[in-house]
């Protein structure tokens, strides 16, 4: 009999109509995971493998900083694995995200938005020491990228029949791009890996430009061929076009990846581009994104 965790991964790869008919453009719909985002893969892997290795034990209380999607996935799967969890996040997160985490049974701790996710990370670290909670630390956790090496990369390779030439992804914790890059480059070193970062001064949920002191330990710039900047306006417009023209409703980070993938498609004479639609747009309906 199936359980909820059996439906993590194997997300659809959908062809996008593109003005350049010499290029094939595909969207990988990660919102189809049980928790509604690409973070389901890493969250379950970090928890399940952590239990297998003895890092965690049944009944333990865990803590993690998150901007949203990882927290939702951790809240969902922690309860399935008999773990308790506290999630620390900036207080400008959409109500949909906060309520979803609490609905799954997580304790949600909000920090001042002006201090950014970097302060949420610091606060989570401090609480883990003060209260004895076990810190997951997705930013330095090798099980984060390993989930994508084992699933996201192989799925893209299989579903494109090995013809993928470019992979475009938002860069947050960087687990998705790190693991997928490792797998695809092993299959074909000529595949180009493109990461999205926000333009200076712009804030885009799910796309980060970390200060050097808070740079994720799993991030290896050598595994990314090109880092492209995307503005908040471009990310918003990309998300709206995805929804209105292509029937794919995602968040702002998905819009940013789509913007870069579309821009890239116009520059190529041929190719197969895959970009990640990180989550579902319904968790942003209270924000400005679809106003």
Automatic annotation (TrEMBL):
Domain Tryptophan synthase beta chain-like PALP: 4-279
InterPro entries registered for this protein in UniProt: Cys_Synth/Cystath_Beta-Synth, P-phosphate_BS, TrpB-like_PALP, TrpB-like_PALP_sf
GO biological process, one term: cysteine biosynthetic process from serine
Cofactor(s) the record lists: pyridoxal 5'-phosphate
One example GO MF annotation: cysteine synthase activity
Enzyme Commission numbers on file: 2.5.1.47
Enzymatic class: transferase
Assigned keywords, A-Z: Pyridoxal phosphate, Transferase
Gene3D superfamilies for the chain: 3.40.50.1100
Cross-referenced SUPFAM superfamilies: Tryptophan synthase beta subunit-like PLP-dependent enzymes (SSF53686)
Name by which UniProt lists this protein: Cysteine synthase B
Top-level taxonomy: Bacteria, Pseudomonadati, Bacteroidota, Flavobacteriia, Flavobacteriales
Originating gene: cysM
């Amino acid at each position: 009999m199936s359980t909820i965790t059996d439906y993590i991964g194997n997300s659809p790869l959908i062809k996008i109509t593109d003005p350049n008919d010499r290029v094939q453009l595909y969207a990988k719909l990660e919102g189809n995971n049980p928790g509604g985002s690409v973070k389901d893969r890493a969250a379950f892997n970090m928890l399940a493998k952590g239990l297998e290795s003895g890092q965690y034990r049944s009944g333990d209380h865990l803590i993690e900083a998150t901007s949203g999607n990882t927290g939702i996935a951790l809240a969902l799967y922690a309860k399935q694995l008999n773990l308790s969890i506290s999630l620390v996040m900036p207080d400008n997160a959409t109500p949909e995200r906060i309520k979803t985490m609490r609905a799954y049974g997580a304790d949600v701790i909000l920090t001042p938005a002006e201090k950014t996710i970097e302060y949420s990370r610091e606060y989570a670290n401090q609480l883990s020491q003060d209260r004895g909670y076990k810190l997951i630390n997705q930013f330095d956790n090798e099980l984060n990228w390993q989930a994508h090496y084992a699933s996201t990369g192989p799925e893209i390779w299989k579903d494109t029949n090995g013809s993928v030439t470019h992979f475009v992804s938002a860069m947050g914790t960087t687990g998705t791009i790190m693991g997928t890059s490792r797998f695809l480059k092993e299959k074909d070193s000529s595949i180009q890996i493109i990461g999205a970062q926000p333009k200076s001064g712009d804030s885009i949920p799910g796309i980060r430009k970390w200060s050097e002191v808070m740079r994720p330990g799993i991030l290896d710039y050598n595994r990314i061929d090109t880092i492209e900047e995307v503005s908040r306006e471009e990310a918003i417009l990309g998300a709206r076009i995805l929804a209105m023209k292509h029937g794919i409703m995602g968040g702002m980070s998905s819009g940013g990846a789509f913007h870069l993938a579309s821009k890239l498609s116009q520059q190529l004479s041929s190719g197969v581009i895959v970009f990640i639609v990180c989550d579902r747009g319904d968790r942003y309906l209270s924000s400005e994104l679809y106003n």
